[in-house]
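Tokens for chain A. Residues wanted.
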């Protein structure tokens, strides 16, 4: 299980801010979602994440921001403090898609002016918060003009750790955006592509430092589709499993090795019953392995990415450890080898041969658990 090695960082777009507390993969979460949380119930991030200001939805729905820069700064400070592990925050930028201009009745130049002015104001209000400058425009010429606006304001984009590239998500897979990215990257900008998905990443992903996408959700919503094995929801538009599966596919596209995602070590309600048989830690680990295996078994393995194989092998060992623990409990409760064999569909002798050595000592199951989780 290799750790992701450099390359383009992919932030998985998440509707549910509580995923921050559930998985440790890089997430992209909107201010609109986090704002719903009371301070006491704010999720604590287990992995790195970046904050979306919700600009796209705000402008599309209201033609303006309902949150003032001061209010936004206060909110982001709260997230940085209470959620933790915030890598950067998007400013309240103004997209330049024709539909957005139609909503506001303003020009590309005015959207750019407001975008740059907002970044400067946020930076002034909260120099300690990692707000990132965002380039807006429609044509390559527009974007270069936007670079000029930052320059004129004394902002050297080549020294910024992240420069957001806006208004590309709806046309991210076109040659036009490929050329734009190449032009900006050749100027030494470390770009984050907002809403750049698999087709865009295939074209020019190597020129981006990072990207985010929630395409997995739109796909499942549009097709009203559900992954095999998913239950409890009509489609997978809000499903963590579907999201992680999409992420695995993106990383495979990017030629990156992934380590297994590690869900939080809390047993779900569905497994509470089984936890009485196996230790809570053992079960939580098994859940993590199961989730990872389900996600990755459907991603075709390549010569350089055999992560799915490791996940499957780990899953087999996890199930063996849990089974052994349960048999040990059954024996401790007074069941005979004949009764255990009956439950497992094997003879008394076969059950004894298979499990006697691992149930002889209470410690054995624990040893087993440690071996496969090591
Ligand atoms: Zn699902």
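Reply:
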């Amino acid at each position: 299980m290799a750790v992701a090695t450099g390359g383009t960082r992919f932030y998985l777009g998440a509707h549910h801010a509580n995923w921050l507390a559930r998985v440790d993969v890089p997430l992209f979460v909107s201010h609109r979602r986090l704002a719903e949380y009371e301070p006491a119930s704010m999720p604590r991030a287990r992995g790195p994440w970046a904050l979306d200001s919700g600009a796209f939805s705000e402008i599309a729905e209201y033609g303006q921001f309902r949150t003032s820069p001061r209010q936004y700064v206060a909110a982001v400070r709260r997230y940085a403090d209470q959620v933790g592990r915030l890598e950067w925050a998007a400013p309240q930028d103004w997209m330049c898609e024709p539909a957005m201009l139609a909503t506001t009745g303003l020009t590309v130049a005015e959207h750019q002016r407001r975008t740059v002015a907002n970044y400067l104001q946020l930076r002034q209000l909260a120099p300690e918060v990692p707000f990132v400058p965002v380039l807006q425009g429609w044509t390559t010429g527009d974007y270069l003009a936007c670079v000029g606006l930052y320059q004129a304001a004394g902002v050297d984009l080549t020294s910024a750790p992240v420069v957001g590239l806006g208004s590309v998500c709806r046309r991210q897979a076109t040659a036009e955006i490929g050329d734009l990215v190449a032009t900006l990257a050749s100027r030494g900008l470390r770009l984050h592509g907002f809403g750049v998905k698999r087709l865009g990443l295939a074209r020019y992903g190597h020129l981006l430092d990072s990207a985010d996408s929630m395409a997995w959700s739109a796909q499942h919503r549009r097709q009203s589709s559900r992954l095999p094995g998913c239950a409890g929801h009509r489609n997978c538009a809000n499903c963590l499993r579907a999201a992680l599966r999409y992420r695995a596919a993106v990383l495979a596209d990017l030629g990156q090795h992934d380590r297994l995602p590690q869900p939080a070590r809390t047993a779900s309600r569905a497994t509470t019953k089984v936890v009485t048989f196996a230790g809570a830690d053992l079960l939580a680990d098994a859940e993590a392995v199961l989730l990872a295996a389900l996600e990755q078994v459907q991603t075709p393995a390549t010569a350089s990415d055999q992560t799915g194989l490791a996940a499957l092998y780990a899953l087999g060992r996890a199930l063996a450890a849990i089974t052994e623990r349960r048999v040990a409990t059954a024996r401790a409760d007074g069941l005979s080898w004949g009764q255990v064999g009956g439950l497992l569909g094997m003879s008394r002798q076969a059950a004894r041969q298979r499990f006697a050595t691992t149930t002889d000592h209470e410690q054995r199951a624990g040893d087993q658990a440690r071996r496969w989780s090591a």
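The pocket of zinc ion is lined by residues 226-227, 230, 233, 236, 239, 241-242 (CB under 6 Å). The CA atoms of residues 40 and 82 lie 9 Å apart.
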